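Quick note —
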Amino acid sequence: MSQTRRSFIKTGTISLAALGFGACKSDAGAPGRGPAVTQELESLTAGVQPLAPEDYALRQDKARRLLAERGLDAIFIGGGTNLLYFTKVGWWLSERVFGVVLGQKENPIWVCPAFEAERAKELVPAGQEIRTWDEHENPYATIGGVLRDIGAATGKLATAPDLRAFEVHGLRRTLPAAEIVDGAAVTEGCRGTKTAKEIAYMDLANRITKLAYREGFKTLSEGMTTRDLAGAISQATQKLGSSGGGGPQFGPNSAFPHGSQVQRTLHAGDIVLVDGGCGVQGYRSDVTRTVVFGRPSDKQRRVWDIVKKAQDAALKAAKPGATCESVDAAARKVVEDAGYGPGYTYFAHRLGHGIGMEGHEYPYFVKGNTLKMEPGMTFSNEPGIYIYGEFGVRIEDCLVITETGARHLGGLESVSIEEPFGAD
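Predicted structure written out below.
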């Protein structure tokens, strides 16, 4: 790894050029012409610096500020993505309650099954208190004891939105003096806006996915199966330093936004649609590319061009202060004006979803969402047109809201149906 690239990863600067990538030409050859000669793929994630303790401390500080602003005394976070986000502690989910209480001022206090205490000590940062409950005891009473000790026994306890229903009901039954409320404003308020370091991880993840697709498309051949193509993409993703891949659909199956169960092999003139992603340091990519095996028909080319114009319109509309629904509307107008409307008739889904540690997360580009965008928010930008019995086209890149507008992550944006990975 070059010193420039290592410095980029340490500082979190949001520039792929600093990773040591030059302009990346679409040199894979047109789909359907067989494998092209390429250099051996190398890992792009070697040396990537993980999040540091101070990153988690900053997240907890922001959560405390949001608790105070909303008049909440504490939040309880159970096992899952939110626990990983705020504490770096990964814990498997079972019927036994495990999690952390984060108050406005106090250090995190953990609640853990007694027989799991030693394992918890391996994961919980040194110096943080762990309170245990035995098998015959009520874990929600243990949480109540934490609230009493921090002066919040009759206050408002927020629960992370991924806390399971039986845990929320258990808290309400056991702690009638406390008000149990939705904590989404705290968790989403933190996770919805990414730091430079998080965006750098996502930039690289999206880059890897696009490079892996490009390698996979070199293998397109008459009679191949979707499993063949998926395997080639997965293998390329692994060589590039991540895990994941893409789910291909051939021909008429591409009209199913999330795929069809009908098995098809590849033939000349078929649309090839691949949707998937990978992760870098727990942060996800989500990319879709649509090409044709062989020569595109006039209709395939025309529909592809409409979808690309819709994606461009959405990118232009995405900027600080604009509403999420306005971005969906900008893309949908292009599709409808081209005759593929109204509404969800052909463009069958919302424009996009938030993305970060999870492939789909808050917030969303969809009609009715009046949330105003802020710098650091990240979304998928994925317009599509789906014509059942014929084919579908979707082009997807993730974007980040910047101080002045938005940009796609990972570079290599589509240029044409023959050139799915343009230069940076």
